[in-house]
């Protein structure tokens, strides 16, 4: 609906459902969240009454099926949770509004609070629910909803018909199933209808909220919906202030006597030090994260603004298959920092990303003195890792290293062909080529197979093994000064590599960076070192260099 006025008109024109089916309809709606939506509120997800569709989004499917199970679990309850989802996933509509209402109408919750970044935004949700509870005749009559003493765009008090079971004494002669005792009297379960008062109230983030209660009840459902915005995450002092308020105010809201309360922090990750990120790291919260692209295209390096129209993405996974991948990739090309923050739940942390300060190049210099190819096979590593190939082009006159790196997700038998192709292209630039592969387990086997394949093609070039005697993190961190000083340049169109550099060490992958380090260590071990200058450095910095031979 375009406006609340349109929603009101739509609801007033709804046909009334058959009263004969009311009992089964309500029972089904209370048992299944998706049935509740399609029966009474389908217009909020683009459906007419009674219509269903196969859900195209993994996130929304999780909300319909898994979230109700998590909330209903009283054996191992998850009282506090973080739900991170990409912008446009419909998290506000589904969780903060419809799921909140469903919990109230089921009778599971009595006092729900919805908190947004501002009170005005929170009021929008209350306004929408208010119209539904006024004009959705099928919802109102099926659940016997009646207005209470407070009815405005900040808080709604209303009653809902609920079934209540009670034990009553009966006699053996009663025409019911009973549990008999020695006195020939028994107990039976009697089911009756009761009207249960409940409340939904809105608040703005950072506002006074401590001690709020309804009929002496503390809130049992607290939904913090995108309580951060571009303003209140801008400075560390503002982020600290919001975090302090969340700890002192929000976490103290539920009653200690109620073990089944729920606090839900729902939002989009706007900053690497945001409240959402801080809380997600806590052990007392369970985190559920839904990026728009759980798996980026494996051929991302071929993507540029110029090639977007003809680009054919491969190997990607999209949360919502109804969306257009080209439009999403256009957003990626336009502003990568915003893309990772708003759509991937991975805000870039330049302050704590030691390899993110790099310079790019678009063209190689006219003369290349030597090349070093580093191989990081995905053999024996975790599923999803890249087979990485990096080439370091060395220009002696400039004392610059030009890096180009590609990542592939292909079968092992295809890897050697990729290396052969790369070698052939590189040979046009220089005859001084060294290929390096790390000497561990499967990689050692791969190196030997590569040598055999090269020999069968009549190619005689050094293929060496590189031993790792240093912690991987220390090795990769050592690339930082080369990058920041501009001695190691990165090819502008190597998108996968740039992604790894921007997100290291917290990123999902570092395979391409690792292959660069392998090539760099091959370069150090080669004769391209200027020994005259190195010996001079040894004399000048005796405390830093024990021996040149250690290199």
From TrEMBL:
Gene3D superfamilies: 3.30.420.240, P-loop containing nucleotide triphosphate hydrolases (3.40.50.300)
InterPro entries xref list: P-loop_NTPase (IPR027417), Phage_terminase_lsu-like_C (IPR006517)
The protein's name: Terminase large subunit gp17-like C-terminal domain-containing protein
